[in-house]
UniProtKB/TrEMBL annotation:
It comes from the Archaea. It catalyses: N-formylmethanofuran + 5,6,7,8-tetrahydromethanopterin + H(+) = N(5)-formyl-5,6,7,8-tetrahydromethanopterin + methanofuran. This is Formylmethanofuran--tetrahydromethanopterin formyltransferase. GO terms for cellular component: cytoplasm. Pfam families: FTR (PF01913), FTR_C (PF02741). Belongs to the FTR family. Residues 147-296 form the Formylmethanofuran: tetrahydromethanopterin formyltransferase Ftr C-terminal domain. It comes from Methanothermobacter tenebrarum. Homotetramer. Pathway: One-carbon metabolism; methanogenesis from CO(2); 5,10-methenyl-5,6,7,8-tetrahydromethanopterin from CO(2): step 2/3.
Length: 297
């Protein structure tokens, strides 16, 4: 199978279950909302080493937000309900409550349940907090130096999908990188997904465990390293490929991840120099979801 002359390997991306929350961060200006959203989703690339996988989902214009201000939806993901509750408290409390003019609203459709994150954060008000209602939502108003910080009392969580992925193989590092950036731009238009790695692009694809160091949970994927293609037995790098990047996608459900994968691959295949699209899996041993590339088109 080919798209614009680019080979799409007959393989699948192996994804796994994760707990997901999606919240809306609003502020007086788009810039201030973006700053707060960025702070709250920092250090959130992979649960291999980070306490959560997190990222910015989409921009919400003033006319579509509960308080009539610009904002960004963000997603925060953790393997457990307890872990996600902790991450929401810390990331909102330290990354958003501390930012100028911000407010936080639940933005998850059809949640499995809700966590009383806003209720817990209201105690920062030290007894001066108040309850109010905005657009039918129960809101806690917490007095801070610059005014009041507003947060919805309960934030929804649900079982989402993490680890959707695909590899972009290019004839050079430059072509592969341009294609990866084009893929991330296309994916950003899909609601309900994030690409949690820096700029949405994974430079250091990994495998589970290690061939040599038993204390490692993950190590470099040597079969996909371009500088090792002539050294490693079973290298998956063709002779004409000199650059590889991976896109990792987390979503509120499997369909959102599939839609994002399709959009990203289509965009990547429009970039000159891209030779092949593949995906990472562990033979079905890692996760319950198999996103088969050929079935996306």
């Amino acid at each position: 199978m080919e798209i614009n002359g680019v080979e799409i390997e007959d393989t699948f991306a192996e994804a796994f279950d994760i707990k997901v929350s999606r919240v809306l961060v609003t502020a007086a200006t788009k810039k201030l909302a973006k700053i707060a959203a960025t702070e709250a989703t920092g250090y959130g690339t992979s649960v291999i080493g980070c306490s959560a996988e997190a990222g910015i989902d989409s921009y919400i214009p003033p006319g579509e937000s509960p308080d009539g201000r610009p904002g960004y939806t963000i997603m925060i993901c953790n393997p457990t309900k307890k872990g996600l509750d902790h991450e929401l408290l810390e990331r909102i409390g330290m990354g958003i409550l501390t930012a100028p003019t911000t407010a936080v609203f639940d933005a998850l459709e059809d949640p499995d349940e809700k966590l009383n994150v806003g209720f817990k954060l209201k105690f920062f008000g030290d007894g001066y907090e108040k309850d109010l209602e905005i657009a039918g939502r129960k809101i806690h108003s917490i007095p801070i130096m610059s005014g009041d910080f507003l947060i919805e009392s309960d934030l929804g969580i649900k079982d989402g999908v993490a680890g959707g992925n695909f590899f972009i193989l290019g004839d050079s590092q430059g072509s592969a990188l341009l294609a990866a950036q084009a893929a991330v731009d296309a994916i950003s238009a899909v609601e309900g997904v994030i690409t949690p790695f820096p700029g949405g692009v994974v430079a250091s694809g990994s495998k589970v465990g290690s061939n040599k160091y038993k204390f490692l949970d993950a190590s470099t994927n040597e079969k996909m390293c371009v500088t090792l293609k002539d050294e490693v037995e079973g290298s998956q790098i063709p002779a004409d490929v000199n650059g590889v990047y991976e896109i990792v996608i987390d979503g509120v459900d499997e369909e959102a991840v599939k839609e994002a994968t399709r959009a990203g691959i289509e965009a990547a295949c429009k970039v000159p120099g891209v030779k092949k699209i593949s995906a990472g899996n562990y033979g079905g041993k890692l996760g319950a979801y198999q996103i088969k590339l050929h079935e996306l088109f």
